[in-house]
Amino acid sequence: MADVVPENSDAGLIEEIRRGQMEAAAELFARHHGSATRFAAGLAGPSDAEDLVSEAFVRTLAQLREGGGPDVASAPTC
């Protein structure tokens, strides 16, 4: 029997994205955008942070839509 995943969890949103629910992608992006941007700014500087976060999200979203990618969202701790 499969585990039940709450819809509002990151794992639930990822499942929804895999089923084609792009509203879930917007929620996942909004949820992690701030911490991802702070992390990217620490790595590459503030001027490149937005581009890095956007590119990473686009690549991850493409993997999720193809059935791959992570099973849970992971965010850097900043």
Give a brief description:
The protein has 78 residues and is mainly alpha-helical.
Layout of strands and helices, then pairs:
Blueprint lengths: L9 H9 L3 H23 L1 H20 L13
Helix pairs in contact: 1-2, 2-3
Structure report:
This protein has three helices and no strands. The protein is mostly helical. It has helices spanning 10-18, 22-44, 46-65.
Rg from alpha-carbon coordinates: 13 Å
How many DSSP H or I helices?
3
Strand content bin: under 5%
Helix content range: 55-70%
The stretches of 5 or more residues where confidence is low (pLDDT under 50) are none
- Run of helices and strands: HHH
Q: Largest beta sheet, briefly?
A: none
What are the main properties of this structure?
78 residues, mainly alpha, 3 helices, 67% helix
